[in-house]
Amino acid sequence: MGKKKNKQNSESEQKTSHIAENRKARHQYHVVDTLECGIVLKGSEVKSLRLGHVSLDEAYGRVIGKDVFLVGCDIPEYKQASHLNHHPRRERKLLMHKIERRKFAEKATQSGHTLVPLKMYFNHRGICKVLLGLCKGKQVHDKRQSMKKRDTQRGLDRAMRGR
């Protein structure tokens, strides 16, 4: 007889632990492409992230040499780390394959494009990941149009629930 797969175990392996999301990014930018990448962290930073202390609001990706760094991401100090603490707004290296790095760096240097972190989370193995988006800035009329579309969709959903 063959082994039965436990459905509960396979579902729990796929779960991710959400840390933070950059909600303003989708309002301010058109997301052209996304890429999941790792991030180089110190121990005290991981402890602080496990508590959910992080701000992605002013963060962006910057290509320096051959590497991509996350700049402006605020991870507050972990109180119990004492003298082994980290600097809260230091530049953190993002980990991605060479081909992906080349592709994203080339597109990011085009005019009007920028690298914006959309989401930060722990994957099913407990490793911290950043969903990095290649974005193009929206004009004021684009922002108004997307807000109008969202409001009409919300109204339609509300009407459908009422029936």
Structural account:
This protein is α+β, with helices and mostly antiparallel strands and 163 residues long. It has a single domain (17-162), classed as Small Protein B, Chain: A (Beta Barrel), CATH 2.40.280. It has five helices and seven strands. It has helices spanning 7-13, 23-28, 43-50, 98-108, 140-162, and strands spanning 17-21, 29-39, 60-64, 67-71, 92-95, 113-122, 128-137. The chain has a seven-stranded antiparallel beta sheet. The longest helix is centred in the C-terminal third of the chain and has 23 residues, at 140-162. It is globular and about 60 Å long. The N and C termini lie far apart (50 Å).
Helix fraction, binned, reads 25-40%
At CATH level 3, the topology is: Small Protein B, Chain: A
Q: Can you list the strand order of the major beta sheet?
A: 1-6-7-2-5-4-3
SSE order, one letter for each helix or strand: HEHEHEEEHEEH
- Global Rg: 19 Å
Termini, distance in Å?
50 Å
- How many domain regions? 1
What is the overall pLDDT average? 83
Q: Strand count, sense and closure of the main sheet? A: 7 strands, antiparallel
- Principal-axes geometry comes out as globular
Q: Can you name the CATH architecture?
A: Beta Barrel
Strand tally = 7
Category by helix and strand content? alpha+beta
The named CATH superfamily: Small protein B
Give a concise summary:
The chain is 34% helix and 31% strand. It has 163 residues and is an alpha+beta fold.
Spell out the blueprint of helices and strands.
Layout: H1 7-13, E1 17-21, H2 23-28, E2 29-39, H3 43-50, E3 60-64, E4 67-71, E5 92-95, H4 98-108, E6 113-122, E7 128-137, H5 140-162
Antiparallel strand pairs: 1-6, 2-5, 2-7, 3-4, 4-5, 6-7
